[in-house]
C-alpha cells in the first residue's frame, strides 16, 4: 500500500501549490489522482499523465499548475511511490479513517504524522510487533519503564489521535515492562481513564509487563469499572499487593482467557435478573459498565437476551460479540425512547456529538436533528 505519510510530507515540502487547495478540493485531488494513475494507464508517459490529470480537474484547481503536477508525478516515480497500487478504498480509508465523509486529507495529516513519529520510534528500537488475540489488539511496542523517559509514553491527546485513526474493531496496546514488585501506582497515574492493566508473568523469572489497552468504540466496555485498576496474572503465583500503595480492589485470575467467560455469565445474569446482587468482595465489583453509566439493560426484550445467550452457550458467537450485541440493543432502546444525542454521547464517553451521531448511524439508527 502507498505510504501516504511520506507523500504528505513531500507535498508539504515540495509542492506548496497543492496546499493552497481547500479541504474539499484536497479530498477530490486524491480521488482524481487515483483515477489518473490507474493501472490501465501505467504505460503512459509523464506528459500524458499530466495532461490527463489536468483534463480531469478542469477549472477546479486553478491554483495547481501543470508544473506542480508534473513535479509531483516525476518526484513520485523517482522515489518509487507506487501510485499504481492505490485503490479508491485505500484513499477513502486513509482520508476518512473513521472521521466521516466530511473530513479532508489535510485535517488528518497532522494527526497521522504524530502517530507516525511514535510508530517510528518503536520501529527504530526494534520493538514493533503485532499480536493476535480475540480483541484484535495491535501491540505497538514494549518500553522498559525503568530505563526510558516517561516522555516517550503517549499523552492523552496522542491516545485520542491514535484511536481516531484506528480501523474498527481494533485496539492499541502500549506495554511497559517493569521489574517484579515495582510499584504500579506510578503506572496507574498514566491511565487517563482508558487503561486496563494486564500483568502477565510469562514465567516466574521474567519481569512483569503492564499493558495499557486503548480501544476505539469502547471494545472493552464489558469490563467492570473498579475504583482502582484490576490486575490479571497468567500463572499461579499471586504477587504481593502490599507494595502497591493504593487502597482498592484487585482481582486475580489464574489465566486471563478465563476472564471474559466468567464476566460474561456474571454480567448476563445481572441483565436478566430483576434484582441483581452485586458481589461484596471489594469496591466496585459487580457495578458493571452499563449500570455505572445508567444504561437500563433490564428494559431489553428478555427473548432477545435469551437468544443471544443461547448462541453464546452453543459457542456460535464469542462473549465479545454477544456483549457487543447487548450494547447495540441498549443504546438503540435509549435513543429511540429519548432522542437525546447528548445523553448517548455521555453514555458512550464520546468526545464529540458528530462521533456519537456517526456511531448511531452505523448501527442503522436514524438520528433526529
UniProtKB/TrEMBL annotation:
Record bears the keyword Lipid biosynthesis = no
GO molecular function annotations of the record: DNA binding
Does the keyword field hold DNA-binding?
yes
Give GO BP annotations, semicolon-separated.
DNA integration; DNA recombination
Q: Which SUPFAM superfamilies match?
A: DNA breaking-rejoining enzymes
Q: Where is the Core-binding (CB) domain?
A: 44-123
Keywords recorded for this protein, A-Z: DNA integration, DNA recombination, DNA-binding
Among PROSITE patterns, the record links this protein to: CB
Looking up PANTHER family in the UniProt record yields:
INTEGRASE_RECOMBINASE PROTEIN MJ0367-RELATED, PHAGE INTEGRASE-RELATED
Its family remark reads:
Belongs to the 'phage' integrase family.
* UniProt protein name: Integrase
Q: Which organism is it from?
A: Treponema ruminis
Amino acid at each position: 500500500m502507498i505510504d501516504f505519510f511520506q507523500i504528505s510530507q513531500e507535498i508539504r515540502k515540495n509542492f506548496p501549490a497543492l496546499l493552497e487547495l481547500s479541504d474539499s478540493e484536497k479530498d477530490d485531488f486524491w480521488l482524481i489522482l487515483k483515477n489518473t494513475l490507474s493501472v490501465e494507464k501505467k504505460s503512459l508517459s509523464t506528459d500524458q499523465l499530466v495532461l490527463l490529470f489536468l483534463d480531469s480537474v478542469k477549472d477546479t484547481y486553478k491554483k495547481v499548475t501543470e508544473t506542480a503536477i508534473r513535479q509531483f508525478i516525476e518526484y513520485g516515480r523517482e522515489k518509487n511511490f507506487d501510485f499504481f497500487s492505490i485503490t479508491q478504498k485505500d484513499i477513502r480509508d486513509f482520508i476518512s479513517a473513521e472521521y466521516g465523509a466530511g473530513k479532508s486529507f489535510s485535517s488528518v495529516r497532522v494527526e497521522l504524522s504524530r502517530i507516525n513519529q511514535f510508530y517510528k520510534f518503536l520501529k527504530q528500537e526494534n520493538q514493533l510487533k503485532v499480536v493476535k488475540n480475540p480483541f484484535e489488539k495491535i501491540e505497538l511496542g514494549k518500553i522498559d519503564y525503568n530505563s526510558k523517559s516517561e516522555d516517550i509514553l503517549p499523552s492523552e491527546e496522542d491516545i485520542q489521535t491514535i484511536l481516531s485513526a484506528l480501523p474498527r474493531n481494533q485496539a492499541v496496546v502500549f506495554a511497559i515492562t517493569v521489574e517484579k514488585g515495582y510499584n504500579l501506582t506510578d503506572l496507574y497515574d498514566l491511565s487517563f481513564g482508558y487503561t486496563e492493566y494486564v500483568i502477565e508473568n510469562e514465567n516466574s523469572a521474567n519481569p512483569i509487563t503492564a499493558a495499557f489497552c486503548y480501544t476505539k468504540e469502547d471494545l472493552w466496555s464489558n469490563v467492570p469499572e473498579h475504583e482502582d485498576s484490576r490486575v490479571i496474572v497468567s500463572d499461579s503465583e499471586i504477587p504481593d499487593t502490599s507494595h502497591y500503595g493504593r487502597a482498592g480492589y484487585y482481582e486475580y485470575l489464574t489465566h486471563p482467557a478465563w476472564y471474559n467467560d466468567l464476566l460474561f455469565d456474571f454480567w448476563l445474569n445481572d441483565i436478566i435478573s430483576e434484582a441483581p446482587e452485586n458481589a461484596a468482595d471489594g469496591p466496585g465489583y459487580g457495578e458493571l459498565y452499563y449500570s455505572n453509566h445508567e444504561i437500563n439493560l433490564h428494559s431489553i426484550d428478555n427473548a432477545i437476551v435469551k437468544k443471544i445467550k443461547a448462541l453464546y452457550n452453543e459457542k456460535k458467537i464469542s462473549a465479545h460479540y454477544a456483549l457487543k450485541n447487548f450494547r447495540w440493543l441498549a443504546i438503540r432502546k435509549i435513543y429511540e425512547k429519548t432522542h437525546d444525542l447528548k445523553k448517548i454521547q455521555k453514555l458512550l464517553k464520546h468526545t464529540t456529538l458528530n462521533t456519537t451521531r456517526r456511531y448511531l448511524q452505523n448501527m442503522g439508527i436514524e438520528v433526529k436533528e
